């Protein structure tokens, strides 16, 4: 169990450092219009690549969840035991916070670095209303996070099903997360992962922390919904329950 939790810690650390790091350090490098900045597409790819590489590195150890919503969804889908939920979530959140801290130390090495806690997407944080990159309402943000997390779980469970082509699951999952970011960065700056949201919110300021509730509630609800949907679609009654989907 300790090794599994270590894998979840490191995998979530990698996801937040790579995904949020690309948003903080590289998305707008050099200012608007600078061809060296990677923009929304680059950030979306960075998140997808962290999950893809992390799943190949750690998936055979822990199942490669790196996300409390995924753990809840796999439990709802019959792929993950209830007794392991809390330890997995704790490991994921701690890995995300460490990544946020390291990212803050790196970003602070630039002269003049400052975080504006009132700015949308400050320090790669998630938000709605005034903290949404596109000014989207709380209802729109909630719906977006629920639906996209549910579909993420459907892809995860389908790609890791015993009848799916072996060895390709991380590619499908990474591309799914990339697509999710391409859709929802303007809406919420894309969470679908409570640990990812928590890992940077405490460095972004009190307003980001005050909105964290949505980025726990909506992704977990979406994860549960997606797990139940795929359990029905994929006939999970014939699949052995395991912590390594």
According to CATH, the homologous superfamily is Glycerol uptake facilitator protein
Helix content: 55-70%
Sheet/helix structural class: mainly alpha
Q: Please, what is the oligomeric state? A: single chain
Family: Belongs to the MIP/aquaporin (TC 1.A.8) family.
Catalytic activity: H2O(in) = H2O(out)
Subunit structure: Homotetramer.
Main location: membrane
Task: Kindly describe this structure.
The protein is about 65% helix and about 0% strand. It contains nine helices and no strands. The longest helix has 25 residues, at about 1-25. It is globular, with a radius of gyration of 17 Å. It is mostly helical and about 240 residues long. It has a single domain, classed as Up-down Bundle (Glycerol uptake facilitator protein), CATH 1.20.1080. Mean pLDDT is about 90; it is low at about 240-245.
Q: How would you summarize this macromolecular structure in one to three sentences?
A:
It catalyses: H2O(in) = H2O(out). The protein is mainly α and 245 residues long.
Features:
mainly alpha, Glycerol uptake facilitator protein, 9 helices
